[in-house]
Design goal:
Blueprint (H helix, E strand, L loop, with lengths): L1 H17 L9 H8 L1 H7 L6 H12 L5 H14 L7 H15 L3 E5 L5 H9 L5 E6 L2 H14 L5 E5 L7 H8 L8 E6 L6 H10 L3 E9 L2 H5 L1 H9 L5 E9 L7 E9 L11
Parallel strand pairs: 1-2, 1-4, 2-3, 4-5
Antiparallel strand pairs: 5-7, 6-7
Helix pairs in contact: 4-5, 4-8, 5-7, 5-8, 6-7
Protein name: O-methyltransferase
GO molecular function, one term: O-methyltransferase activity
Pfam family, one: Methyltransf_3
Amino acid sequence: MVLGVVALLALAVGANECAGKPVVFLRWSFLRFVFALNHMGATWQVGDGREKALADYVCAHARPGDVDDAIRVIDDFCYHKKYLINIGDEKGQLLDDAVAAARPQRLLEVGTYCGYSALRIARAMPPDARLHSIEFNAANARIAQRIWDHAGVGERIVVVVGTLGDDDKTIKALREEHRFSPGCLDFLFLDHEKSEYLPDLHRILQHRWLHPGSVVVADNVGYPGAPEYRNFMQQHEGHDWLTRTHRSHAEYQKLIPDTVLESTYLGQTTQPPHVD
């Protein structure tokens, strides 16, 4: 029975590969990703070298200094080569629109991964704006920097290796080395460990980096889900936050629905609890 199921799955995957990989769930790279979820959760890499392979692919196939072409090539890699968990092209347009509407000068991204969303942010933000991106994995940070430099936006993005919950090390670096101060942050993008969305937002609020009108965009609120963060925004709707809910799909497929929240901070009464 089990061997029969495996054989059918192998046939389905083989047929899908021959058809140009139209169904993401029937791709070997997606199945490899699913089996590596524990490794992914611990390291933010799948473990088969696909993140480095992405950088190699971008440098080989994207025109140097062309951010649009770098984005195109990454999407092509994710659709036809190896599945990756960046925000993707469909939800990426929502991020583009939010950045363009906010016209921010100082931006913070939490969760760099391979640098795809930072490319989209850099393309949409004003020419004199600066994006800081926090990444847990130093290898991912190097991959992202290589891609940004090839795309010609490396000087506008600063990657910081760490997490906001690492005993104040990263927060101290942002304050002292990168001059983060009360009211400095115009735009925040959350796309990292979903259970850390709300604690990290609280940390940012405690340091008063947001100001009235700051915009916070959160990916994957529907899938795999960030229920505590969603509930927080619902509870504070109309008082401390105004939130737009964008219905979309998980990256690089049309079967799994996802939700992106775009929240504007009103800066009125939020008093977040202490977070160590």
